[in-house]
Amino acid sequence: MASQPELGTKEPEIATATPVVSFLGPVSSYTHQAALSCFEAAKYIYNPAATITADCGNLDVFEGVQSGEAAFGVVPFENSTNGAVIFTLELLADRHNTYPDINVCGEAYLDVSHYLLGHKAPRNALTDSPDVSGNCTPTTSIPSPLKPRTKPLSSLKHIDRIYTHPQAWGQCETFLSAYLKGIERIDLSSTSRAAEMVKEDTSGRSAAIASSLAAEIHGLDVLARGIEDREDNKTRFFILRKGVDEKANASTAKTKSLISFTVDHRSPGALAQVLDCFRAYTLNLTSINSRPTNDVPFQYIFFVEFEGSKLDDPDGRVEGALESVAKFVQSWRWLGSWDDKLSR
Length: 344
Known about the structure:
The chain is α/β, with parallel strands linked by helices. It is globular, with a radius of gyration of 23 Å. Strands 1, 2, 3, 4, 5 and 11 form a 6-stranded mixed β-sheet that branches. Strands 8-7-9-6-10 form a 5-stranded mixed β-sheet. The longest helix is centred in the first third of the chain and has 12 residues, at 56-67. The protein has 3 domains: 16-112 and 232-243, Periplasmic binding protein-like II (D-Maltodextrin-Binding Protein, domain 2, 3-Layer(aba) Sandwich); 115-227, 3-Layer(aba) Sandwich (D-Maltodextrin-Binding Protein, domain 2), CATH 3.40.190.10; 255-344, ACT domain (Alpha-Beta Plaits), CATH 3.30.70. A hairpin with a 3-residue loop joins strand 3 and strand 4. The chain contains 9 helices and 15 strands.
């Protein structure tokens, strides 16, 4: 906290810029909602990073944080139904050391309920029914399909293309297979961008998988609500910052850390030796992911998340494990430590 000026003196005028939070946008995306849950709106400027291709939104977030244009970045990391977000892992792999100062400093969990948004078609009472929309199953090849949790609110026969973020497809597969099987699927940078595209489509033949907030913002009809496969569908987001806050107070909450590393794939048991370092120091592993190194075919960069913090390590277990890991890897990088929000 800054010291107060002495009585009788004039407080110096200091121009302090409002910190920027960059997120995978546009406004109304799930990442935007996660950012709002972490950062008080009145104290931050929100910068949606949104481009046409599916991966560039995340890229813009990483670039903004690394350059210092954004104080924090928020990116999706994994979904409880559909697993890891590949685009985020690709950027964390950082094969060319483009983002050397980026660290994960926090996480957020968001309940995700997907809506099918679009424009209702003029209703033909004789032929249209929500239960026989689109190219629906059962079919000869799928005589006993899984039953979706919800039904369309109106006919979907006029829909011939669907837009959304790639991560959403796997979260809504049962509904899509039942009511929109075979319909063209188009990947976009975010669910909110998908809603924008549907709003711009004057033909009315496209739909978006997005949030209820996106429907309100873009004035779209809700064609179906709650189309995710599981009622407990959640997405975990990482909060990024440049560098490390060395002044961060020790936390009494459970903590997690993330590292990446490569091993010599020609050495039998190389990966097992690395993982055994965490067992030796009684550190619980919470997730393991991998991405190709792009140097040698079928060799990988591994990501290991584990319980414990490099920044708050009174018994030295994390330090010991990482020192041990360094003996068995070709290269490794610490990607951050943060409070475990899931344990609360």
